[in-house]
Amino acid sequence: HVKSRGKNGFAFYDGSLSIPLHHRADMERLLRNALDKGEFELHYQPQIHLGGPRVDGLEALIRWNSPELGRVAPDEFIRIAEETQLIVPIGEWVLRTACQFIRAIHENGNEKPMISVNVSVVQLIGQRYVERVLDILRETGLEPRYLELEITESMVIESLDLIADKLRRLREQGVNIALDDFGRGFSSLSHLMRLPITTLKIDKSFIEQIPDSMDIQPLTGLIIRLAQGMGLKVIAEGVETYFQLDYLKKYECDCIQGYLFSKPLTAIMAREWVKTVSLPIT
Ligand code: C2E
Ligand code: MG
Ligand code: MG
Ligand code: MG
């Protein structure tokens, strides 16, 4: 059924998802002003290093609080932001805000967790991307080794050489590069080896199969071994159960990210979490 959404248009409720699928033109129009109107917010999800255990990093995840549309999930608007190039200014705002946030954490505590920021291919192939990142690092006073940029494999295939070159220049300055969502779709080791990546993030579609599939279990372990053999840090995404945690510990996965430890938190909550959390996982 179709539900009216005031004078701005309609929200279509898809029976299977119960997510309102807003009229594309509406969303695009509202997205154009969202940055200036201060409607974006970053949430931060902790990444726990099992060796400590300690907070190794925090992933910045964008939230859009639209007065007209309500809370819009990134999966609903990032694609439109990419198609309209709006992702370029939005992505710069994300990077600057995330760098400022982690600087504040470093200044107020003993721990120095990293900040991970998702990057779109549209940003990467854009003009002067490397320079823009380095400018923001200088401007916020964050050392490059505390920044990790997350890229996804599906997006790099089209312009692999250009992207590999830009990432290499960032890597030379000390920025860390993570391959996000590994194993979600088509994954190619030869692509992987042409990119200067430092971290592999195993997609939650793999992790969620741990409890009930004997086939996936050894494969996940194998990916961990293989990645570590290449000198990469491995992060498991979407860890929700102690069973999954035990399994990942057994295979010596470096880091865990998921609802088991924490959902993405507001900046204030995340700061508090880093300061006060005690991890019951040794
Ligand atoms: P991602 O980079 O793979 O981020 C992880 C997503 O998994 C987040 O969804 C997070 O909330 C969710 N997640 C974390 N732990 C669990 C868990 O235990 N179980 C389940 N079911 N989910 C978990 P979110 O925040 O909705 O973001 C979705 C995607 O949107 C991100 O996937 C990323 O690709 C994109 N995104 C988010 N923020 C940005 C941004 O600032 N820039 C760009 N370009 N993309 C972004
Ligand atoms: Mg990510
Ligand atoms: Mg991502
Ligand atoms: Mg991911």
Automatic annotation (TrEMBL):
Any one GO MF annotation of this record: cyclic-guanylate-specific phosphodiesterase activity
Keywords per UniProt: Membrane, Transmembrane, Transmembrane helix
Ranges where the EAL domain occurs: 24-278
Record's protein name: Bifunctional diguanylate cyclase/phosphodiesterase
Organism superkingdom: Bacteria
Parent-record interval covered: 264 to 545 of 545
